């Protein structure tokens, strides 16, 4: 004995409650009770009635089981059984009034047919012989014959529907489900338009969902449970790709149709038609890019937030769960259709750099950063470079690209820590040729002098620029001379400062302002934390990278005339900075913590307390203001984010 059943999709994360799927499942359950459980004879005709008619028709070889009842009340197997039994009938020795008996059988058949037609299940079913005008076209997909029929369909519906509704939104998914069921009914109807057999069940519409799932979530892992009884019992689970799970099911349906035709009592052609419809619908959305161009932006606008390209989300999900091949394939396909998809370029470039493919990876990262520089803010470019960490080698960037990146980051609102990277990029740009290279070296010297550090390095930049002050660059000679004088002045001041400084004197410099990066948490394990900035850039942090966790309550304005509510901000400090750079802080509001995902069913206050406890246990980070207060739920109150930042990242931050 062997049994294999799908149990669910691994690592399923939904952004919204699947209300349409829940409604469809609930409607199927309610209708099942009304049409099958509550009536004593759901089809209006019981097995005893049919058995009695059959026995009466077998008392004489000249009697005939009424054809109308045979066509509508018996299955194909039942009709074959009647034929075999009739072949064995022998004429009785006693007189039988055949005409009277036949008339009684025909009258009883008409009574049973009338009783069947009065049943709700019959009226709502799809019967091809009724023609094109019948309610069954839409109602049949909510009816079921028995518990196993209902539960089997709902199990497969659960596997395939949730992610589709989440990706496509409720209206599109609801329309798709009904259209898939309708198309499946048409496929069954076209097979035999004169058939009196009832067609009921959600399997045609569910097959459409499976066809769409096969393509849209091809790389998602479906968890299969198995039970094998061969001398001993073997049981467990194993994952298979979505395309393989749905594909094997479809192949089995096609094989059943080729072998058994339409004689199994199962509407196999409806399954095949529904699956083909679903696969074709998902293919159309992919070919036309409607999902990412229309559907995803519409969902984003409705939710009031940013929604990633669904293909990007799928590839990122594969990367988060460690399926590198699926992630690489997903990012590659996305870049093929959208060559300037920044997130895919940076993610795939990072993967290549980590894999030792330095030249390819840097080229892809460079392209992604240049695209980002043309679209986003300085913060976004800086965050993308910082996320790459040591994988991003400034010296390998092409001079022209280095110039463009440096220009993008060279802004008044640039984060304090961006200055050194900007200078390094200008330095690389200075290795090029022409007036651009001279301008880059001049700007690198200006940035170095602005920090009043190491004027000797600024002098090196100027020394490289001087021999190139020809042609168009000659106009820059005056600025080079001014900077030369500034270098000399700073060098002299530094010399006097060193001579005059007392050995015990210490000049206290005010701490640099913190760099606050608004984020949300998209993944959390015992070892790592995945965060996503408001720009859409993602970064995975080891738990040990979190140095401190700060918590504060802030007032949140409510409707006019009502007092403000309190919301909580959680800061994850990943760097305390240095003398010239303030702390780097990932700031997450209460919504961005996704507590309902990581702690489902837990009340918000308790979930937040558990989140803090888990984070402190996994990170061993410092607690701000202190561990005892946070453990007791005593969070400090502030009037604004600026006040919170000043409180935590002033002198106390330096001391920590």
Largest β sheet strand count, sense and barrel closure:
7 strands, mixed
Mean pLDDT: 83
Q: Helix- and strand-based class?
A: alpha+beta
The span between the termini is 65 Å
Radius of gyration: 36 Å
Low-confidence stretches: 651-656
Q: Count the beta strands.
A: 10
How many helices in DSSP terms? 28
Strand order of the largest sheet: 6-5-4-9-8-7-10
Beta-strand proportion: 5-15%
Assign a percent range to the helix content.
55-70%
| Approximate shape | elongated
Describe this structure in words.
With 656 residues, this protein is of the alpha+beta class. Helix content is 56%, strand content 12%. Mean pLDDT is 83; it is low at 651-656.
Describe how the helices and strands are arranged.
Layout: E1 2-9, H1 19-37, H2 47-57, H3 67-73, H4 76-86, H5 98-117, H6 120-124, H7 136-139, H8 147-168, H9 170-191, H10 203-216, E2 221-230, E3 232-241, H11 242-260, H12 268-288, H13 290-303, H14 310-320, H15 324-337, H16 342-354, H17 358-373, H18 378-388, H19 399-409, H20 418-429, H21 434-450, H22 455-465, H23 477-500, E4 515-524, E5 528-533, E6 538-542, E7 548-556, E8 565-575, E9 584-589, H24 595-598, H25 604-619, E10 622-624, H26 627-631, H27 641-648, H28 651-655
Parallel strand pairs: 4-9, 7-10
Antiparallel strand pairs: 1-2, 2-3, 4-5, 5-6, 7-8, 8-9
Helix pairs in contact: 1-8, 2-5, 3-5, 8-9, 8-10, 9-10, 9-12, 10-11, 10-12, 11-12, 14-15, 15-16, 16-17, 17-19, 19-20, 20-21, 21-22, 21-23, 22-23
């Amino acid at each position: 004995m062997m049994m294999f059943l799908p149990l669910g999709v691994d690592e399923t994360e939904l952004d919204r409650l699947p209300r349409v799927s829940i409604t469809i499942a609930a409607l199927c359950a309610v209708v099942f009770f009304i049409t099958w459980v509550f009536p004593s004879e759901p089809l209006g005709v019981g097995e005893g009635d049919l058995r009695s008619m059959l026995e009466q028709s077998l008392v004489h070889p000249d009697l005939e089981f009424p054809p109308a009842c045979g066509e509508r009340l018996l299955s194909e197997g039942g009709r074959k059984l009647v034929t075999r039994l009739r072949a064995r009938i022998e004429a009785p020795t006693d007189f039988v009034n055949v005409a009277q008996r036949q008339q009684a059988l025909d009258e009883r058949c008409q009574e049973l047919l009338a009783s069947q037609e009065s049943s709700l299940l019959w009226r709502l079913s799809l019967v091809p012989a009724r023609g094109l005008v019948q309610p069954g076209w839409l109602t049949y997909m909510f009816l079921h014959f028995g518990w196993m029929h209902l539960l089997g369909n709902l199990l497969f519906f659960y596997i395939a529907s949730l992610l589709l509704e989440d990706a496509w939104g409720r209206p599109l998914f609801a329309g798709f489900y009904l259209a898939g069921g309708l198309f499946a009914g048409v496929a069954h109807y076209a097979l035999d338009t004169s058939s009196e057999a009832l067609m009921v069940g959600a399997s045609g519409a569910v097959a459409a969902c499976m066809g769409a799932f096969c393509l849209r979530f091809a790389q998602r892992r479906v968890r299969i449970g198995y039970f094998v009884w061969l001398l001993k019992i073997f049981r467990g689970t194993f994952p298979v790709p979505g395309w393989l799970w749905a594909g094997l099911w479809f192949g089995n349906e096609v094989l059943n149709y080729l072998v058994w035709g339409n004689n199994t009592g199962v509407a196999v052609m409806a399954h095949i038609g529904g699956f083909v419809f679903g696969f074709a619908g998902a293919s159309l959305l992919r070919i036309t890019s409607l999902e990412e161009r229309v559907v995803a932006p519409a969902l984003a606008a409705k939710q009031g937030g940013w929604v990633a390209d669904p293909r990007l989300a799928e590839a990122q999900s594969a990367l988060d769960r460690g399926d590198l091949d699926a992630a690489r394939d997903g990012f590659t396909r996305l870049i093929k259709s959208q060559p300037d998809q920044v997130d895919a370029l940076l993610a795939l470039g990072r993967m290549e750099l980590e894999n030792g493919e330095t030249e390819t990876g840097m080229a892809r990262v460079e392209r992604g950063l240049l695209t980002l520089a043309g679209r986003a803010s300085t913060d976004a470019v800086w965050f993308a470079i910082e996320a790459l960490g040591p994988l991003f080698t400034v010296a390998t960037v092409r001079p022209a690209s280095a110039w463009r990146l440096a220009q993008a980051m060279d802004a008044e609102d640039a984060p304090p820590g961006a200055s050194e990277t900007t200078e390094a990029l200008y330095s690389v740009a200075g290795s090029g040729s022409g007036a651009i290279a001279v301008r880059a070296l001049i700007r690198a010297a200006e940035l170095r002098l602005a920090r009043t550090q190491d004027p000797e390095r600024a002098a090196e930049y100027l020394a490289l620029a001087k021999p190139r002050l020809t042609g168009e660059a000659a106009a820059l000679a005056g600025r080079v001379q001014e900077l030369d004088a500034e270098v000399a002045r700073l060098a002299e001041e530094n010399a006097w400062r060193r001579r005059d400084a007392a050995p015990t004197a210490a000049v206290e410099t005010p701490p640099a302002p913190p760099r606050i990066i608004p984020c949300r948490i998209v993944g959390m394990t015992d070892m790592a934390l995945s965060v996503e900035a408001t720009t859409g850039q993602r970064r995975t942090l080891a738990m040990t990278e979190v140095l401190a966790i700060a918590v504060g309550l802030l007032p949140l304005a409510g409707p006019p005339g009502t007092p403000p509510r309190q919301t909580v901000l959680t800061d994850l400090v990943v760097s305390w900075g240095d003398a010239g750079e303030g702390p780097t802080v990932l700031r997450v509001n209460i919504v961005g913590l996704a507590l309902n995902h990581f702690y489902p069913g837990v009340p918000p206050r308790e979930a937040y307390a558990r989140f803090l406890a888990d984070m402190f246990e996994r990170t061993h980070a410092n607690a701000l203001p202190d561990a005892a207060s946070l453990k007791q739920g005593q969070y400090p109150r502030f009037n604004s984010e600026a006040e919170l930042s000043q409180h935590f990242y002033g002198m106390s931050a330096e001391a920590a």
